[in-house]
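Researcher: We're reviewing a set of sequences before deciding which ones to prioritize for further study. For each one, I'd like a predicted 3D structure that I can look through quickly. This is ABC transporter permease. If possible, include the structure in token form so it fits the rest of the review sheet.
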Amino acid sequence: MSTYQLAAAAGGRLPLGRVRALARGQGVPIAAGTVVALVVLAAVFAPLLAPYDPNAVDPLAVSQGSSAAHWLGTDDTGRDILSRLLYGARPSLLAPALITLAAGLAGTALAVSAAWLGGWWDRIVSAFLDLVFGFPGLILAVVGAAVFGAGLDIAVITLSLAYLPYIARIVRSAALRERALPYVSALGMLGFSGRRICLRHLLPNLLPLVLVQATTSFGYTMLDVAAFSFIGLGTQPPTAEWGLMVANGAPGIIGGQPEQSLYAGLVIVVFVIACNLLGGGLSRRLLGEDR
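Model: Here's the predicted structure for ABC transporter permease, in token form for your review sheet.
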């Protein structure tokens, strides 16, 4: 059955643009992008969407299951789980966003400068990236917390450093290939400065690759931030955060009340998968990769 026959069978309800996107194999990235957008919107509008104060304790509603009053139930102190999930999206998304932004900007700057200048600077940058790459991000964050104390700000700083090589190494390889193209030599012969060539021509050609890497890294940074909070070194109670909610709800699993850990863990998994699928779709669309 053709695409148009499918649309007709649905009573004309499928917009033509959506059908064409699905026909081109973009259905999965579009769905993943929709999930990401919905989670971001839920975090932004949490005060309007949450039915209760996320930190409001109700001793009369401790560890209740789903009901008309509490759609996803309550935790061990009577706090509404849905409200805490909505508010918890804020730190759960903000920290990975800051990490990805910092690692992306610093990594891209180091990669482009190393590819352009070459020589001793390229060797220093490459050695630095190899050194940092040898440390697992979560271990580096734990060391930072041991030295400077627990807190989400420490996780952002240390994980930004840990994720820098993941972006910088790939961008450096692409920048070296771009640096060797004829148009770069032509611009130099026309009198363009190295700074202008990098900012006006080299960087714009590398931005699609940076965007793809940042999108994929965003999901992994969320896992690390959640794990950091899970072990008690990130967001501190009573603040709502998904990783901390998984940790707080762990004792209830044995008692047959897994709702808090289950729902918090589920939203983390769904969001990370959505980021990976969106990154794959952007890679095929922006970079022309078939994988």
